[in-house]
Amino acid sequence: MAEEKYDFIIIGTGAGGGTLLHKLAPTGKRILVLERGGFLPREKENWDTVQVFQKDRYHTDEEWKDHKGRSFHPGTGYWVGGNTKVYGAALFRLREKDFGLVEHSGGVSPAWPISYKELEPYYTQAEKLYGVRGRRQMDRTEPKASEEYPFGPIKHEPRIQEIHNLLEKKGYNPFYIPLGVKLHDDMLESSKCIRCDTCDGFPCLVHAKSDADVDCVRPNMTMQNVELRTHAKVECLVTDESGKRVETVVYSKDGEKHAVKGNTVVISCGAVNSAALLLASANDKHPDGLANSSGMVGRNFMKHNNGAILGISSKPNPTVFQKTMAVNDFYWGDDEFKYPMGHVQLLGKVNKDMLAADAPAFAPGLVLDKMASHSVDWWITGEDLPDPENRVTLKDGKIHLHYTDNNLKGFDRLMKKWCDILKEIECADYIVPHSLYFRKKIPLQAVGHQCGTARFGEDPKTSVLDKNCRTHDVENLYVVDGSFFPSSGAVNPSLTIMANALRVGEHLAKS
Ligand SMILES: Cc1cc2nc3c(=O)[nH]c(=O)nc-3n(C[C@H](O)[C@H](O)[C@H](O)COP(=O)(O)OP(=O)(O)OC[C@H]3O[C@@H](n4cnc5c(N)ncnc54)[C@H](O)[C@@H]3O)c2cc1C
Ligand code: SF4
Question: Which of 459, 376, 452, 453 has the alpha carbon at shortest distance from 418?
C-alpha cells in the first residue's frame, strides 16, 4: 500500500463534509476528500416517480439489520453531496430554546454545549452559501437572525395561498418554508429551477436545488490544493502507538485497499456510517471502538417522529410545487398540552405513483390518481429524545440499528390536531394518514433525519466530541455530520449541520 500525506482528509461529501470542504478549500492547505459514492447521474430517471419511489433507484442496495437480526434496505444514498442530492431543501434554523434543556412529556431534551447565539453567524453564512429563500418574522418561533434571507420566499400556488389565507383567518401563523432552490419568480436568466413536481425526495435534473455537490464540491474541484476520490469507501482509521492520533486512513477503491495519511482527519459519513466507521476502527488502545472511551459512539441515535397526512377534499389541488408553507404554532405545545408537539410543513406534491409505492397491490390506479389530484399533503415532525439504547452496532462488519420510538404523546396530539384543523378549514373531507409514514408503521429504513451517534459535549464521560467537534480521545480526529446533535429538535436538520460545519471549519482553518 503506497502512502500519501495531506493536511486534511475529509471523509464524506454530504451536508457536513461538503460544506466543510467549501470552508477549508480557500486555506490553500492540501485536502483529500474521500467519498464512497460517485456523482449522481443526470438522467431522465431523476424525475421519474416509479424509479425513485418504487424502485429506490438512488438508494444503496446495502442491507442493514434491525435488533432482531432482520435485514432491511435503508432509505439512504451514497453520492457526492450525500443525502442533500435528494432532500427537500427545507433549510431551517433550530429554535433558540432547542439549544437549552427542554422538558418534554416523554422526558428531557438535553442542552447543547453551544448556544444559539454562538451558531447564529454560521447559520447566516450557511443561508448565503445555499441561497436560502424565505421571509423572516412570519414564524413566531423563529430565532432572531442577524440578516434577512438572501432571497425572497418562493410564493404559494393558488390552492396553497387559499389554505394559507384560511389558516390566517382562524388565527394561525402559516409562513413560507425557507428553501434552498435556485428559483427567481421574475424568471431571470439566472433562474435555473423550473418549479417542477418532482423535487422533494428526487434529485434535481437541472441542478437547481442547492445541495452540497452543486454548491460546495463542484465549485472547489478546480482548486490545486483539493483532490476528490470518488468510489473510495473508508474502511478504518489506524492510530499511532499511543492511540492519541489517527495516522492512516484505509479505504477501498476498485477492489483494492489504499492507505493515506493526514494531519487532521474529519469524518462526515452521516450519523449511522460515521458511528460504524469509528466502531470498525477499534484497536488495542481503543478496544470498544475509536474515540469511544465514553461508550457513547453509536448510541443516542435519533431520526425524528415523522408522519404524513393527506387531506383530501372535493376541491382539486392542481399545485405543482407544493412545498412552500409551514406552521409552527404548536412547536412548544398549546393551551391544553404544555409540552412541545412539533412542526408542520407541506410535502412535495404527492402523485399516484408515490401512493402506489405504499398502497396495497389491489388499489386501482384510477382511485389513487383521484386521491392524489385532490389531496394537500403534509409532513409532521416531532422531536424524538436521545436514548442510549437506540444505537448503531457492528456485527460481522454489518450495520445493526436498534430503535424504539419515544416521546410520542406530543407528536400524536399534533397529528390529530392538524387533521382537526384541516377539517375545520374544509381542506379535508377525508384524512388519509399516508401509510408509509403513519406513525405506527414508520419503517426503520426511514433514516433521512439520522443524528446523535457521536454527540458533542463538555464531559468526555458522556459525550464523544468536544465543543469544536474534535473527539475527546483522539487529538486530530473530528466529526462534522449529523452525529454531533445532542438532541434532534423538530425541524429539518441540514441547515444546522451545514452551519456547524462552517463553525468547525473556521476553527480548523486557524489550527
Ligand atoms: C428524502 C429525504 C428528504 C430530506 N429532506 C430534507 C429537507 O428538506 N431538509 C433538511 O434539512 N433535511 C432533509 N433531509 C435530511 C438531509 O438530507 C440530511 O440531514 C443530511 O444530508 C445529513 O447530512 P450528513 O452530512 O450528516 O450526511 P449525508 O448528507 O448523508 O452525507 C454522508 C456522506 O458520506 C458518504 N459516506 C458514507 N460512508 C462513507 C465511507 N465509509 N467512506 C467514504 N464516504 C462515506 C456518503 O456517500 C455521503 O456522501 C432529507 C433526507 C432525505 C433522505
Ligand atoms: S423544483 Fe426546481 S430545484 Fe426542485 S427538482 Fe424541480 S427544477 Fe430542481
Answer: 376
Q: Which amino acid is at 463?
A: S
- CA proximity to 443, closest of 77, 90, 70, 50: 70
Cβ-Cβ contacts under 8 Å for 70 (sequence gap 6 or more): none
Q: What is the residue whose three cell numbers read 438532541?
A: 487
Torsion angle, alpha carbons of 207, 231, 23, 280, to 10: 130
Alpha carbon of 70 to ligand 2 centroid (Å): 36
Task: Write the CA distances from 284 to 31, 234, 247, 297, 298, integer angstroms.
Answer: 29, 20, 15, 17, 19
User: In DSSP terms, which residues pair with 471 in a beta bridge?
Assistant: 465
Mean pLDDT throughout 483-504?
98
Residue-level pLDDT at 363: 66
Q: C-alpha grid cell for residue 461? A: 464521560
* Amino acid, res. 167: L
Residues with CB under 6 A from ligand 1: 11-17, 34-37, 75, 78-79, 82-84, 86-91, 201, 233-234, 268-271, 273, 277, 448-449, 481-482, 492-494, 497
Mutate to test the pocket of ligand 2, among 44, 130, 154, 204 (most ligand atoms within 8 A of CB): 204
Quick: pLDDT tens for 12-41: 999 999 999 999 999 999 999 999 999 999
Mean pLDDT of the chain: 94
Q: Nearest CA to 306 among 379, 385, 359, 386?
A: 379
pLDDT in tens, 45-103: 999 999 999 999 999 999 999 988 999 999 999 999 999 999 999 999 999 999 999 99
Q: Is 234 annotated as a binding residue?
A: yes
Q: For 228-238, what is each residue's pLDDT tens digit?
A: 999 999 999 99
Q: Are strands 31-34 and 226-229 parallel, antiparallel or unpaired?
A: parallel
Cα 270 to middle of ligand 1, angstroms: 6
> What's the pLDDT score for residue 365?
77
pLDDT at 3: 59
**CA separation for the pair 433, 415 (Å, rounded):** 9
pLDDT band for position 430 (50/70/90)?
confident
Q: Which one of 79, 84, 210, 253 would you pick to mutate in the ligand 1 pocket, going by the greatest count of ligand atoms within 8 A of its CB?
A: 84
- Neighbour-count burial of 331, counting CB atoms closer than 10 A to its CB (0-12 exposed, 13-18 middle, 19+ buried): buried
- Domains of the chain in start order, with CATH, are 3-510 (3.50.50.60)
Q: What is the pLDDT of residues 303-313, one digit of tens each?
A: 999 998 999 88
In contact, 414 and 432? CB cutoff 8 Å:
no
DSSP-assigned letter for residue 254: T
